[in-house]
Amino acid sequence: NVIKTQGEEVDYRGVLHRDGSVLMSVSLNQLKTPELLYKSLAAKLVVGMPFKDLATVDSILLRQLPPVDDNDSRLALKRLIDVSMGVITPLSEQLTKPLPNAMVLVNSKELSTGAYKLLPEGTRMVVSVRGDEPYEVLDILKGIDATMLLHDLPFSEDKVSRVHAARRLFEYLGDNSLNFPVIHHIQFPSGIHRDDLVIAAGTNAGALLVDGLGDGLLLEAADKDFDFLRNTSFNLLQGCRMRNTKTEYVSCPSCGRTLFDLQEISAQIREKTSHLPGVSIAIMGCIVNGPGEMADADFGYVGGAPGKIDLYVGKTVVKRAIEMEHATDALIQLIKDHGRWVDPPAEE
Ligand code: SF4
């Protein structure tokens, strides 16, 4: 029973991205330095004002709203809302210190007690569900208009599998023709190792996203830096073949036949070409298995002989035996010749 397909008939209403969304949790402290916050959200800055582009965070979750007299923080939020960034705030916060045009997070308890009915008509709701609620609770979803759902089963609950709970939720939504976008919201425990976080995000959310189940990610870990969580989210969406925000690289694992320092050269190439979403570059240590392994890449950089590089466009070799020291520049020229190059964005 496949339930729902990414990108089809879903109303993203500007606060999500149709190829997969990244949501981030933002603290009150971050609002104190708006320009830093805009940069952390990967927003483009034009005269100090934020603008969204392909790699900008789509919506933010605020656990607390700034006081009504904190004009600077509220102005920072207003500017984000003005460029269609969703700002999600808890129901209780929105009732006590309302922020115009914010979305409101409603959990399953507030759904079943009817507390969400206290909100002014037209308020956009984000409903957080665990996926293992009784069907009577999920049935309330049939009577409401939610902008998105957060699948929000606490990570520490080892009795219930997140993946199974999510599959149950998607099955329910599909059976009832409820076409809400669903964001995988994972709150990681403090102290989790960065590698474990990446693996857990991949196994819990990535496994579903590759099946077309879900529309984005909200990864939270109080002791991990913001950029790491944002990059992990975008990398996961790209790995799931959803939203390409940077260059895709294919590389061989290297072996005894490798004709150059694969790691060093890969790092050099990445440094100069990582800003080309939609372009894929293969870096292969030799030609033995190269062409087969790099079949999907747009451009190939392949060891041809000691100190010499061959360049490919698709599976066709177009330049042979380039001296190693000129090969990265030759690769960039090749990308330019094929109209796939853009200059890196200038830092304001
Ligand atoms: S492409 Fe060549 S260098 Fe790379 S792993 Fe395969 S055989 Fe080894």
Automatic annotation (TrEMBL):
InterPro entries, alphabetized: IspG_bac-typ, IspG_C, NO2/SO3_Rdtase_4Fe4S_sf
Pfam families noted in UniProt: GcpE_C (PF26540)
Gene name, Swiss-Prot/TrEMBL: LOC103344199
UniProt protein name: 4-hydroxy-3-methylbut-2-en-1-yl diphosphate synthase (Ferredoxin), chloroplastic-like
SUPFAM superfamilies in alphabetical order: Nitrite and sulphite reductase 4Fe-4S domain-like (SSF56014)
Every IspG C-terminal domain range: 248-336
Keywords on record: Iron, Iron-sulfur, Metal-binding
Cofactor(s) this protein requires: [4Fe-4S] cluster
Record lineage: Eukaryota, Viridiplantae, Streptophyta, Embryophyta, Tracheophyta
